[in-house]
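Quick entry, no commentary yet.
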Amino acid sequence: MVPAADRLPGYADLTPDVLLAALDAVGFRGDGRLLQLNSYENRVFRLMLEDGRAVVAKFYRRGRWSDAQIVEEHAFAAELAAAEVPVVAPLPLQAADPAVTLLPADGAPTLALRRAPQGLHRYGVWPSRAGRAPELEDPEVLERLGGFIGRLHAVGARRPFVYRRRLDARADVRAALALLESGADVPDAQRAGWAAVAAEAVACIDAAFDAFEPEAIRLHGDCHPGNLLWREQGVHVVDLDDACQGPAVQDLWM
């Protein structure tokens, strides 16, 4: 359950001053240089620190994930890093402000909760890693990516997620149909025909999964090329924000 105080508009209060103060409050003093990075759900920034390092700060969208779900994301990243899977894991934080609460993941505090005038900011800090999208037409690159994803899935199969979402084709398709049925997206003139075709599709999905029930493991969940930072030495994988429980093929067909 997402706290009521967290159900507030997105990022109107996340000004540069607030951003720098939030990082300072967890032990990362910026020198004023920051760059907003591409992100659909969250707000992500690359910051230069006074000690010369570059870090990436991610501020989670209010109301999307609970504290427990974010901590589970961070713990999965730490577990992968400990197994030498090249995932960029969040950095440990240090509370330097009484207004900040830190939550541990796998022993180290990596999620910060900081009160702001319009609600609560949840955020973490990662080392900045550079790379480019992999050349998916190169067979050698594909082979190395396949090996990496296999290692990630081997760790993911060790235990299930407790709090993060589970991909379930039967339940997900029914939820999508219920959403369409409850609104005006389907014109009345086509509703009967659409409903008949939708029912056939649901029956086909049920039959397919009854015949072969895929094993559900922990996944990256958003394994598109933009989250695979390629370098000649190999790949750095970022952004486990959509990590979930589901069939392994979910990471492959993205």
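second:
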Amino acid sequence: MTRRWRYLVSQYAALAANMLPPLIYLLIFFYIPMSILLVMSFWKSGYMTLTPAFTLENYKLFFSSPIYLRALANTVLIATGTMLALIVLSYPIAYYLARFSPRHERLLLFLIIIPVEINFLIRIFAWKIALGRNGIINSALMSLGLIDEPLQFLLYSKFAVALVLAHEWLPYVVIPLYLALKGIPQEVIDAARSLGANRWDVFWRIIVPLSVPGLFASFVLVYIPMLGEFAVPTLVGGPSGYMLGNVIESQFLSAGNWGLGSAIGFVLLTIILILVALVLKVAGLERLL
């Protein structure tokens, strides 16, 4: 074997060694489970049983049921509204951290990250107590004379689900945006201002386009998991805050209809893949597909 061939073999071996672990991980934890889910969605289903016979009944049942379609609409509405609110809230925080807080940067980052270390169930129950009829929020508003009776929409509503999700996922939006904004050279901003650009122009024409990778990272980390959320709607959502994750969970664990649960899960996965492709296209990151 010549020296050149030995070099090529060593390079390909190194490449294979680097790529093999993530490929095995994806195969075991994504491709195989998703393939099983897809196959199960086309099987006939009884209570806790599956018959390997091709059928479209599971998909027909989902798309013909007002309850399931309402849960799908709730899911998209709550996840999208919460994501937009998080972006609007996180941009000023991330921009302040990246540009104006060198002395207190670590402290502020610590304060943002520390809630993540608290068990998410504890955080959900804390919000459930705070938002209740006799919770701290209603009690404070009534003590101040701002309301005469407890606000009903604070708990067991879409608002409650969105609020708790926003609190749960805020750090995962702030940190990617902060890192993206931190990487924007100050010289670029100074050059734009020296050429007559005002703060609004600098923000929309320089800061926002250059922070798109951070926005996409936030989308992947936050929006996609929110679409499959079921714990928060179960505890604080009530009937009006019911999401698709609750439907999937009930089909697998309570109703025992694994075929329908698989079909709904695959519909949700398809929606997620379409949304990722659309966001990549809008963000100009199609090369990642």
